Amino acid sequence: MRYHDLADVSCSITRPLVVFGDRWTLLILKCCFSGIRRFNGFQSALGISRSRLLDRLDRLIEHGILVKTESGEYRLTPKGHDIYPVLLAIRDWGDAHMAPDGPPVRYTHRGCAGEAHVRVGCDHCGAEMTARDVVPEPVVASPA
């Protein structure tokens, strides 16, 4: 299956991979959340080629995740802000499994200095869940 054909797969994990499926896109978003807004800032922070950076920025704009302002800044849209928990989940996993000397960065709550973490919970009872607690069930489309 070709990469862009994944957009047609009826799966809400598979479809976003067409947008976020490479390291550069997620690293650009990480930079956005850290306050980088300009093309040269992304290029300097990431060491990415100009053509690849432009391609990824254009894709993020095309999908409504970033907008480019008249002043040339790239800004996250509300849709873009919604990806933040995914980045934090990747960070939590990286801290747990790929940081032998401990987390290199703390993400603290501005109001109380507690740490930000992602948790999976039940929207009905509030219980915290792991993969062992979840049963994927196909949604049956109702007749039109």
SSE inventory with pairings:
Blueprint: H1 17-20, H2 23-33, H3 39-46, H4 50-62, E1 66-68, E2 74-76, H5 78-81, H6 84-97
Antiparallel strand pairs: 1-2
Q: How would you spell out the order of helices and strands?
A: HHHHEEHH
The biggest sheet amounts to: 2 strands, antiparallel
> What is the topology, as strand order, of the major beta sheet?
1-2
Return the structural class: mainly alpha
Any low-confidence stretches, pLDDT <50, length ≥5?
Answer: none
The Rg value, from CA coordinates, equals 18 Å
Distance N to C terminus: 30 Å
Shape designation: globular
The total of helices stands at 6
Helicity level: 25-40%
The fraction of residues assigned to DSSP E strands is under 5%
Mean pLDDT: 91
Compute the number of strand runs. 2
Task: Give a quick precis of the structure.
This protein is mainly alpha-helical and 144 residues long. It has six helices and two strands, in the order ααααββαα. It is 38% helix and 4% strand.
Structure description:
By secondary structure, this protein is mainly alpha-helical. Helices cover 38% and strands 4% of the residues. The protein has six helices and two strands. It has helices spanning 17-20, 23-33, 39-46, 50-62, 78-81, 84-97; strands at 66-68, 74-76. Strands 1-2 form a two-stranded antiparallel sheet. The chain is globular. The two termini are 30 Å apart. The model has no long low-confidence stretch (mean pLDDT 91).
